[in-house]
Structure formats: structure tokens, C-alpha cells
Amino acid sequence: MSNTECANCRGVKYYFDFAVAAFTLDSQLLEVVHILKYARGIYLAPQLGRLMARALVDERLMDLDLSEWVVTSVPLHHFRERKRYFNQSAELARHFAKSVGVVYSEMLKRVLPTPHQARLKRAERAKNVKGCFEVKEGDIPPNVFLVDDVFTTGATVNECARMMRRAGVQRVIVLVLGRK
Question: Which CATH class is domain 18-179?
């Protein structure tokens, strides 16, 4: 799927239907995300996950029957998760799912460790995550909300969505806490 709605997305093949953010990523939200991820701020996850439900006011989501959807998250490699003690995206996704009454499922696993994406350019980010994710064995739902903390270039969520589409997921909508 090619998205032509925003200048940042033109010419990029996205495997998800679209991405929705609960908030614009400003310096204050970025600081909160950094506390969550790097200062073991897991205590922030319940409130932030509930706040992600704000994304559902997007007109493209208004008519969805949420009972037909599953929530999943971008996985961390087990080395990084062990170092961080938790996966911030999974925590946000669990709390979001609970707040809106949708089933949470850990559908994906990260099979390759990668360097942090923060200092990489768009093409480098896409290459960095290529082949890093697999869909776990089990039932494949037709519709999935894929949750991550922030959306920068979309490389990570795009690779996750690519793998889910390959496994048979029909619709993938990305939900993030913040997006520039």
C-alpha cells in the first residue's frame, strides 16, 4: 500500500492501512517517552495506555466494530527487553486494549537484535529492521491494531505489518502514543 497523504510518506510502500497518533510528539511527550523507556518508568504505562484511546476519535476509526479487532505490539529483542526489564510498547498496548475492551495478543517476536533506530536515516532504518520480526504460531486475526510508542519514519511498524500481512492479517492499523 502506498500512502500519498503526507509528504513524509510519498513514495514509500506501507503494509499497514494507516497510522494514528494519540498526541503530537513534542518535547514534553518525548521526555515522558524517554522516562518510560530508559528510566524504567513502567509506572507511566497504565495512564499512557489509557490515553492512547484518544486515537480512536479519528474519523477513519469511528465506525469500526472493535470486537473484530486484536491489539498487538512491536516486540523488543529479548536482550533489550532483559536490559530494560519490560517492553514499553507491549505495556502501552495492554493498557490500551484493556481500556477499550479489545483482546491483547503478543503476535510478533523479534528474532534479530538491531542497533537503536534513533540516529539512522529513513533508508537505514528500513534496512536495519528488515527480517527482524516473525509472526508467532497460532490463530491469525483478520484485523490488528499494532501499537508502538512513537512513529518517526514508520520503518519498524511497517516491517511488523509486512510480516503480519504475509501471515494472513487483512487489516493493520498502527496506533502510537506520539507522532511528529
Answer: alpha beta
Residue count of the chain: 180
Q: What are the strands, taking DSSP E only, across the chain?
A: 18-24, 70-73, 103-104, 108-110, 133-135, 143-151, 171-179
* Ramachandran area for residue 3 (φ above 0: left; ψ -120 to 50: alpha; else beta): beta
Per-residue pLDDT at 3 exceeds 60: no
Is the distance from CB of 143 to CB of 70 less than 8 angstroms? yes
Q: Are strands 133-135 and 108-110 parallel, antiparallel or unpaired?
A: antiparallel
- Note the pLDDT tens digit of each residue in 35-59: 999 999 999 999 999 999 999 999 9
Residue 37, Cβ neighbours under 10 Å: how many? 19
Contact 115, 128 (CB under 8 A): yes
Q: Residue 126 is placed in which grid cell?
A: 528500513
